[in-house]
Each structure stands twice: as structure tokens, then as C-alpha cells.
Amino acid sequence: MAKSAKIAFTPIEDRVLVHPVAAETVSASGIVLPDSAQEKPNRGIVVATGPGRRMKNGERAEMPVANGDEVVFGQYAGHGVELKGEEYKILRADEILAQITN
CA-to-CA distance for 64 and 27, rounded, in angstroms? Predict the structure, then answer.
């Protein structure tokens, strides 16, 4: 999960900063997976959101996610960036496939 440290990062338009959840290192049956067999994480916690894209009428579209939401995104979606030694993904709001709720 994302740490609670403040990050001075504000995405623009409809972009979202996501802290990916670490990949599983042990399979469901208890087998330890080597780095080469681990899948890239496709889930994460939203850390920051932009204000939303500007529509033709000049208003901003509402963002579908908020800070703290757990989301699922495509395996090759977004761009990786490192901030304060941590890996993050910058995604467009439309690259987020689902929001996980408990």
C-alpha cells in the first residue's frame, strides 16, 4: 500500500498518480515465484488526481476516482515515474479499468 508521506505532485487534466501494489512473490499453492515469473502489478492506490479534463463547454469533467481509491489498470497502461525513491504510474482516467471497493 502507498505510504502516507505527502508528495508534492499534481497531475494535470484527467491524469492520476497511482502507487502500484507490490507483485505477489508466492503463488496461491505456496510456491515462491522468481522475479522473472512475477507479473507486473496491475493494481494500485490513487495518490493524486488532476482537476479533470476540460469539456467543450469550458467546464471540467468530474474525476471517476479520488485519493485513496484502489484501482485496476491495464498491464501496459500509463507511464512509470520515480518519486522519492518509490515507483509510481501516471495514468489517464480512461486507462483505469475498475475501482476496487470492500
Answer: 32
Q: Return the C-alpha cell found at 4.
A: 502516507
Q: In this structure, what C-alpha cell is assigned to residue 73?
A: 489498470
pTM of the model: 0.75
Rounded Cα–Cα distance for residues 91 and 48 (Å): 11
The model's pLDDT over 65-88, given as tens digits with 9 standing for 90+, comes to: 999 999 999 888 889 898 888 899
Q: CATH number, domain at 67?
A: 2.30.33.40
* 25-36 tens-digit pLDDT: 665 677 766 666
| CA 98 to the chain's CA centroid | 11
Q: Cβ distance 64 to 96 under 8 Å?
A: yes
Distances (CA, A) of 16 to 31, 51, 52, 94: 34, 10, 10, 10
H or E, element range at 3: none
Does 4 map to a domain? no
Give me the number of domains the chain comprises.
Answer: 1
